Amino acid sequence: MDRDRILLTPGPLTTTLRTKLAMLKDWGSWDGDFIAITARVRRRLLDILHGHGSHVVVPLQGSGTFSVEAAVATVVPRDGHVLVPDNGAYCKRAARLAQMMGRRVTVLPTGEDRPVAADAVAAALRADPSITHVVLIHCETGTGVENPLAAVAAVCAEQGRGLIVDAMSSFAALPIDARQVRFDALVAASGKCLEGVPGMGFVFLREAIVAGCAGNSQSLAMDLHEQNVYMNKTGQWRFTPPTHVLAALDEAIEQFVEQGGQPARLARYADNYRTLAAGMQALGFRPFLDPQVQAPIIVTFHAPAHPAYDFKRFYEGAKARGFILYPGKLTQVETFRVGCIGAIGRNEMSQAVAAVADTLREMGIPGGAPAP
Ligand SMILES: *Cc1c(COP(=O)(O)O)cnc(C)c1O
Q1: At what angle do helices 346-363 and 261-282 cross, to 10 degrees?
Q2: How far apart are CA 250 and CA 234, in angstroms?
Q3: How far is the CA of 282 from the centre of ligand 1 (A)?
C-alpha cells in the first residue's frame, strides 16, 4: 500500500496535498521571492496572534524544542531564575533545557492528570522574589491537558514577572489573543496546528522587552535577538533557512485563512476529538484525563487490561489499516495517545476508531477496558 498513512500524532501530522506540493520548488535564500515569503509568513503569524504593533515574530530553524530553548536563552538573563510549573513531559523538558543553559530553575510539581493551578504559581512567586520568569506549557502534549494560560499570565503581570509560553501544540487552534494575554515570549512551530511540515519554529516576543534581550543568549545559533535584528535589516535568515519548510508553511497558512482561521480550526479539532472520544468509549477504552481538562489536541487512553494487549502489536495492527498511533508518555500507568490535529476530519477519526476495533478483534481482545 503506497497511500500515505494518516498520522494521529501531534506532529509531524497529516498535511494536505497543496501543502506538500508547495515543497516542489527550490529557493535561493537571498532571493527577493524567498524574502517575500519570509515577510508574508511573519505578517500572517502576527495576524493570528493579534500581535501587530505590540509583538515581533522571529522564525528559527529546527524542531519546536530548538525554539523553546532559544526563547529561554534570549529572554531570561544569565542570572535569571525560572519557575516551571510541571504537569508533564514537556514541562520537564523545558526545566531541563533552562537548567542546562545555566539558568537557575525551580520546578513546581503538579499532578499529571490536572491543570497547573494559577494560585499555586502566585504563591510560589510571592514566596520567592528572586524568580524572574515563569515558563508555562499551554497544552501539555504528554497527556493532552490544557493549562490556564490567561490566569497564569494575569498572575505574572500582577507580580511583575516575565512569562514564556510554550504554545507549540495549541497555537492557531486554541484562542490566544496578545491584546488580552500578557507574555514576553510565546513559542510555536510549523508542523503542529498550522498543519505545515516540521523543521522550523517561531517565537513571538513582546516588543517592549526585545532591546533588553541583547547579549542574554549564550548560544550563537539560538540567539533570537540577533536573528530578529538581522531579519529586520536584510529580510533574510541569519543562517541557511529551511526553504521548503517555509514555503510549505506559507501555503498551509493560506489554507488556514481560507478555512476560517483559528475558530474554524478549533471547531474541526473539537469535532475530531468528540468523534474519537465517543468511538473509543464505545469500544470500552477509558481516557486518562477528565474531559473537563482535556484540550481537543491529543488524547491519552489507558491501555486495555487484557493479557493479550501489547502496544507494539496494537500499533502494527492500526498501521496495517492505515493509521499511525502514538505511544504514551506516562511513567506510572501504561497508556497510548491519539492526536486530533492535522489535515483530517470526522471521517478519518471514525475510520481510525474502526481500525482500532478491527485490530482488537485480530488480537483476540474483546474490548479496550483498562484495569479497574
Ligand atoms: C511538539 C512540542 C514541542 C516540540 O517538540 P519537538 O519534538 O522539538 O518538535 C514542545 N512543546 C510541546 C508542548 C509540544 O507539543
Answers
A1: 20
A2: 19
A3: 31
10 touches ligand 1 (CB under 6 Å): yes
Question: Is residue 146 lining ligand 1, measured as CB closer than 6 Å?
Answer: no
Three-class HEC string of 155-199: HHHHCCCEEEEECCCCECCECCCCCCCCCCEEEEECCCCCCCCCC
Whether this model's pTM surpasses 0.70: yes
Q: Which of 282, 300, 279, 302 is nearest to 291 (CA)?
A: 300
Determine the pLDDT at residue 3: 81
Res 162 pLDDT > 90? yes
Q: Which atom of ligand 1 is nearest to the CA of 140?
A: 13
d(CA 267, CA 274): 11
CA dihedral 182, 187, 191, 197 (to 10 degrees): 120
pLDDT tens digits for 70-123? 999 999 999 999 999 999 999 999 999 999 999 999 999 999 999 999 999 999
